[in-house]
Amino acid sequence: MTPNTVVHGTFVIERTYGAPPARVFAAFADPAIKRRWFAEGKGSELLEFTMDFRVGGRELGRFRFQGRMEMRNDTVYQDIVADWRIVFAYTMSVEDKRISASLATIELAPTAGGTRLAFTEQSAFFEGADGPKIREEGWRTLLQRLEDDLRSGK
Amino acid sequence: MTPNTVVHGTFVIERTYGAPPARVFAAFADPAIKRRWFAEGKGSELLEFTMDFRVGGRELGRFRFQGRMEMRNDTVYQDIVADWRIVFAYTMSVEDKRISASLATIELAPTAGGTRLAFTEQSAFFEGADGPKIREEGWRTLLQRLEDDLRSGK
Question: Which of chain B's residues have a Cβ under 8 Å away from the Cβ of A103?
């Protein structure tokens, strides 16, 4: 018995930030802050960004890359523990074709100088998807953007 | 850097059924059929079962086990390809305490005598959860109940 076309993958990214857990949590929970580091990326035009940060609430991001493809990110929040844990399911679509579904777990813990963040993504990639490696690179870029935003002192 | 309290796990269950993919797919897509093999289990009282089988649609099951604990299952459908794939995110709660969030992928493929089903679950288990082994046993039981239901010819 061989698998169908879905490729499953898991990756973990660990970061430490020089800001307390409450501030790192707020960067995911506050729509104005999250929009800044997560949605308003270089090289892409933000078409739409809405979020309802509560368990069962949804988030939608629509982006256009280099004036061409439209990408869409649909999120549903699965579990939230303030300053400690955020779990969400999300799909990515390119031009209305869903390419993946993922479960992402963000865990925060205080350290002497700030916060340790562990990001775990468990994904199912469909036909024509980016795959685990490119997805992991994408999240590493985002978590660096979060670092830059925390350092900016905004 | 050590992890927080979340335990991540993945398991895959493969089954073959003596019914064509369309009939196995219907057992997941048709609320009356799914209620029969999935929700109305022995040893548990079904308190509520509703499902809206479309991408973004939700399913809710509430059960009471042995007259004691209330368990709750909240699902959001992430991807559906008729007779081929169903992907859903779900959480399990015991007495209103969420114990896990999971991404489940069901893949169907025709075989000479029926259907091969591959069930892949990627889960995050929280404080007080059952964990990957008990979860896998639970799904093996359910997929056997599906077998029994398909054989019953209903």
Answer: 89, 101-103, 122-124
User: A8 by DSSP, 3-state: which?
Assistant: strand
Contacts of B121 in chain A (CB under 8 A): none
Place of tokens 């949804």: A58
Contact indicator for B78, B102 with CB cutoff of 8 Å = no
ipTM of the complex: 0.94
Domain B7-152 fold is Alpha-D-Glucose-1,6-Bisphosphate; Chain A, domain 4 (3.30.530)
Q: pLDDT tens across A30-41, in order?
A: 999 999 999 997
Residue extents of the structural domains in chain B: 7-152
H/E element, A140: helix A132-151
Q: What is the pTM of this model?
A: 0.95
CA B61 to chain centre: 11
- pLDDT at residue B2 above 50? no
Do residues A77 and A87 touch, judged by C-beta distance below 8 A? yes
The one-letter amino acid code at B149 reads D
Gap from B130 CA to chain A (nearest CA, Å)? 17
Rounded Cα distance, A141 and A143, in Å: 6
Report the alpha-carbon distance of residue B2 to residue B26 in Å, rounded: 44
